[in-house]
Design a protein that fits this description.
Blueprint: H1 11-28, H2 30-38, H3 49-52, H4 60-65, E1 80-83, E2 93-96, H5 98-115, E3 122-125, H6 134-146, E4 149-152, H7 158-168, E5 172-175, H8 177-189, E6 201-204, H9 218-226, E7 230-237, E8 242-246, E9 253-254, E10 260-265, E11 277-284, E12 295-304, E13 316-317, E14 322-323, E15 328-330, E16 333-335, H10 337-346, E17 352-358, E18 364-371, H11 378-389, E19 394-398, H12 400-407, E20 418-420
Parallel strand pairs: 3-4, 3-5, 5-6, 6-7, 17-20, 18-19
Antiparallel strand pairs: 1-2, 7-8, 8-9, 9-13, 10-11, 11-12, 12-13, 12-14, 15-16, 17-18
């Protein structure tokens, strides 16, 4: 199997990997064969970024509608079948052969090294390895390649998590940040000396730890006020099969340039300037089964080109500001669900969902539904939230059981806070 090269490669070598991937899809991917033919493109003639930009953007709808046309190997080669989380619609099938599983392992191997995990450490995985979830498998394979100890507890079950921490003394956890608050609450209620546990760091998934100013979110601050552990942000998706990971300086997530080529584009499709926000568009590198070229992730991120204090020269991305399709325009103000979530977290309300509708004039209308057991009244929440995000939103109370059903649907792998009915 081909060596995946060091992640600290030159721009020229990365571009060579881009060209190799283009030549590969032109030969093996039914979808991209058609795209190249329809647009009069030849992989061998794409030598500059200007040439590259002639390739049309691939959308999530393309991937969903033409799913098996993206498969660039014989179906009999497929070993692992996964799906996307379905945050913006129905989950999309994704498939990996042996080469791609090795690449997935290498990806997390390098990501854990960025964080500082070593062979001598043990890591407790509080994420599932089943339910068609790629990330759990990626963590497991990456830690195996690194040679670190692995404790597979799976998601939820705070009691089991603390029992495992006491038994096996992991130095790191892999966890959703908000789950850490549940772990802390359980420890406080059951007399567990969590502040003196073996855990020194947490690799966090699924929720942002930094805001768009690269400052700590309320969630991160709240966790670290209670528990003195180092929190590392990561960003990934099933389609990318690649993780972007924070180093010890916590100033954006490092890209692995040997595994992925990134663009951050504005509304007109042009590259944004340093420290500007745009949509992340990715081209996977060294992928065999389902390679993607100029795939629009839908995630709005900050592009960071400034050198990192850790010495790595690769581009970084800031936290996900929001999903492009989830952008809200309320009373003339543009915001994303993440802004509302940060506001709600800052005023101490954690049991809620956000719903978006169109009113009779076609304008966006937002309702925040909170549990009837909330300690704050509707008017108090409304006023405190307005002070944080500078806009007055509709607040409604609903039964705690109804809220739980909406926030934790049975088929979902993660909480669903934003519900878009527009």
């Amino acid at each position: 199997m081909k060596d995946f090269l060091s992640p600290e490669i030159s721009i020229d070598l990365q571009w060579q990997l881009v060209q190799e991937q283009l030549q590969y899809v032109a030969m093996h991917s039914p979808f991209y064969k058609q795209v190249f033919s329809k647009n009069g493109l030849a992989a061998s003639a794409i030598n500059t970024y200007a040439d590259f930009c002639r390739i049309p953007i691939t959308t999530k709808e393309d991937l969903q509608t033409n799913n098996f046309d993206f498969l660039a190997v014989d179906y009999s080669e497929i070993i692992d079948h996964v799906t996307t989380s379905g945050t913006l619609g129905n989950p999309v099938n994704f498939m990996l052969n042996e080469h791609d599983l090795q690449r997935l392992a290498y990806n997390e191997f390098e990501s854990f090294k960025i964080i500082g995990v070593t062979k001598e450490d043990s890591v407790q995985l509080t994420t599932t390895l089943d339910r068609r979830f790629m990330a759990g498998m990626a963590y497991f394979l990456g830690l195996r390649k690194l040679g670190a100890g692995i404790i597979r507890t799976g998601s939820g079950l705070p009691g089991l998590q603390w029992d495992s921490i006491e038994r096996f003394q992991p130095k790191y956890l892999v966890a959703v940040p908000s789950f850490l608050l549940k772990l802390i609450a359980y420890a406080q209620q059951n007399g567990i000396d969590f502040k003196n546990s073996s855990v020194k760091g947490v690799i966090c998934i699924g929720e942002s730890l930094l805001n768009e100013d690269l400052k700590d979110t309320v969630l991160k601050t709240k966790i670290q006020e209670l528990w003195d552990v180092e929190l590392f942000s990561t960003y990934a998706s099933t389609e990318m099969a690649t993780a972007f990971t924070e180093c010890e300086h916590h100033k954006g997530n490092h890209i692995l340039p040997n595994l992925i080529y990134t663009e951050v584009l504005n509304e007109d499709g042009y590259t944004v300037e340093n420290l500007q926000v745009g949509e992340l568009v990715i081209t996977t590198l060294q992928v065999e089964s389902m390679p993607l070229i100029r795939y629009a992730t839908g995630d709005m991120v900050m592009k960071i080109e400034d050198p990192c204090s850790c010495g790595r020269k690769s581009v970084r991305v800031g936290p996900v500001v929001g999903r492009k399709k989830q952008m809200l325009k309320v009373k003339g103000t543009t915001l994303y669900p993440q802004h509302i979530q940060e506001g709600m977290n800052s005023i101490g309300v954690d049991s809620y969902i956000i719903e978006a509708y169109k009113d009779e004039l076609g304008n966006d209308e937002v309702y925040i539904k909170v549990s009837e057991s909330s300690k704050l009244s509707i008017s108090e929440i409304q006023q405190k939230l307005r002070d944080k995000i500078q806009i007055k939103l509709n607040i409604q109370q609903i039964e705690a059981s109804v809220l739980a059903q909406k926030k934790f649907p049975k088929e979902s792998r993660k909480p669903i806070i934003f519900h878009d009915f527009r």
